[in-house]
Amino acid sequence: MAGLKKILLVDDEDDLREALAEQLALHEEFRTVQAATATDGVRMGREIRADLILLDVDLPDMDGREACRLLRKDGVSTPVIMLTAQSADADAILGLDAGANDYVTKPFRFAVLLARIRALLRRREAEVPASAKRLQFGPLVIDSALREAWLREHQIELTGAEFDLLWLLTSNPGRILSREEIFAQLRGIEYDGQDRSIDVRISRIRPKIGDDP
Fold it and tell me: What is the spatial order of strands in the sheet that 140-143 belongs to?
């Protein structure tokens, strides 16, 4: 089992949860643990060292976004992909604001979810080299190991998705990254021409880092 990526599945739909566990097991690179409630998911997210959490929004005991907030409040930095039945951008953005790194809308194709999982895990692994742990641009400092940023020595409050985007942009100084590139890097998918979540995240990051439009 050594070297396998541990995925925590949090969903109250038993059939879906079991199907996801079976499909992930077929790829021989993952092992899964499961929770049917947000309460158990939060507890397990705190106690086990998962590499990634798949977290449903519509859970019987607590909204998945609130569960994500509790994990982030407790310092759990494990990447989170929200599973949501809501397709509106506003609902997806609420999940990102709660601290999720990505979201997938139900119903989804497993191949799409797998691509998102792998993209997020690759990005986390790319942050490991010591030479790339910390970047500084004048008074702005971004640390990928701690997943924290500071402006003039004051910590900036960033969601997980905001940090991922900020790190991607600051890791490519002097380059203009298109939406297509950003989507490919952060989410492992092609840009569909309609999703505005990147624009929203940019608009929220800019005042936090003191950017003057």
Answer: 134-137, 140-143, 148-151, 154-155
- In angstroms, the CA 198 to CA 164 distance is 11
pTM reported for the whole predicted model: 0.68
* DSSP calls for 126-189: HT-SGGGSEEEETTEEEETTTTEEEETTEE----HHHHHHHHHHHTSTT-PPPHHHHHHHHHSS
Nearest to 27 by CA among 105, 109, 110, 108: 110
Distances (CA, A) of 2 to 25, 31, 152, 206: 14, 10, 42, 41
Encoded tokens for 115: 């691509």
pLDDT tens-digit profile of 42-53? Answer: 999 999 889 999
* pLDDT per position as a tens digit, 170-189: 888 888 888 888 887 777 66
